[in-house]
Design goal:
- The protein is α+β, with helices and mostly antiparallel strands.
- 28% of the residues lie in helices and 16% in strands.
- The chain has four helices and four strands, in the order E-E-H-H-H-H-E-E.
- It has helices spanning 20-30, 33-36, 45-48, 61-68; strands at 2-5, 10-13, 77-80, 92-95.
- The strands form two sheets. It has a two-stranded antiparallel sheet.
- The longest helix is centred in the first third of the chain and has 11 residues, at 20-30.
- The protein is elongated and about 55 Å long.
- The termini are far apart.
- The relative contact order is 0.09.
């Protein structure tokens, strides 16, 4: 039996002899941030390294993004304003030359 988990695009081959408990252990391990992402390729690497699973990072993600915005290189990112209802407290940046 093959189980597919999308959008992660992993396939788990399960033998008939495998116990449900062992399958769950494999799945829980596979969902760890360190298994899903190479943190050296993201500006959020240090932030995500403080968590075990991606959903644990959601609570503070807004604050992380708001703190990251002003640190982005002006040569690579263009600040966009007026896209949100309350744009006075938030600005978005868009990568140039995508």
């Amino acid at each position: 039996m093959t189980l597919a988990f999308f959008p992660i695009e992993w396939y788990f081959i399960v033998s008939r002899d495998e116990t449900p408990g062992n399958l769950m252990k494999r799945l829980v391990t596979a969902l760890k941030i360190t298994e899903l992402y190479d943190l050296s390729h993201t500006a959020a690497g240090d932030y995500l390294a403080g968590f075990t699973y991606p959903w644990q990072a959601l609570e503070g993600l807004k604050d992380f993004i708001l703190a990251l915005g002003p640190t982005l290189p002006k040569e690579e990112y263009e600040e966009l304003t007026g896209l949100l209802k309350d744009s006075s407290s938030l600005s978005l940046k868009e990568r140039k030359n995508q």
